[in-house]
């Protein structure tokens, strides 16, 4: 994507992962994880701001954004948790700061609680973490992914645009919406969109939900107060489940907080990171 390059490639067990690093190598490492159906592009403004004081790693999960997409690909939460653990080892990061949104929150939690990935601190932004999750639309598509894959391209494009747009409370700029939809178009993108929904199984968070009380690293839970995808009450519940977690609601922001309130989110993250430094 013009203006947001991911020039590096890591060959994971679930396909090629595209990634990049911003900021000086002598700065504290910080990793950003995106959610679904997004990509690291949603972090661009926040990443550039954080890179003033941190070495920021951004990546597109297998099956998302500019990373590899192919038939039969395992893009489940279980697979992404393993890939993230592999990436941390590849980057040589023992205890980075980790900031994760939506589906990426579950990926970061699984890597930490099941695969032993160590973090200096963890910030969760409107994460998929507590049951039940998945909208009626999400469940409908998941149950009939093979049918939706056969939609004419124009109808598929319209569906994805409406779905992605609904993640924002004030609304996305047309150019931004185009960028977020683009990876899900074409011969590889259209089936990949339905593949990732079909593999989104709640059991992958059920496996770890009872372990949140064992999280021992400093944790921040941020939530868009106008989130219609995951109610803000889930954020309060999650913050209460993690010992000592800080709770930070973000006003006038929907689920896609990075787009709706990037300055407010960046300020909340910087305040938290200064606290744990």
TrEMBL record:
Keywords in alphabetical order: Hydrolase
* The keyword Hydrolase is annotated on this UniProt entry: yes
Molecular functions (GO terms): hydrolase activity
Domain of life the protein comes from: Bacteria
Q: Which InterPro entries match?
A: AB_hydrolase_1, AB_hydrolase_fold, Carboxylesterase_BioH, Epox_hydrolase-like
- Asked whether the UniProt record includes Transcription regulation among its keywords, one would answer no
Q: Which residues form the AB hydrolase-1 domain?
A: 28-262
Instruction: Supply the PANTHER family for this chain.
Output: HYDROLASE ALPHA/BETA FOLD FAMILY, PIMELOYL-[ACYL-CARRIER PROTEIN] METHYL ESTER ESTERASE
Query: Know the name of this protein?
Result: Alpha/beta hydrolase
Which species is listed as the source? Answer: Streptomyces pactum
Q: What is the lineage of its organism?
A: Bacteria, Bacillati, Actinomycetota, Actinomycetes, Kitasatosporales
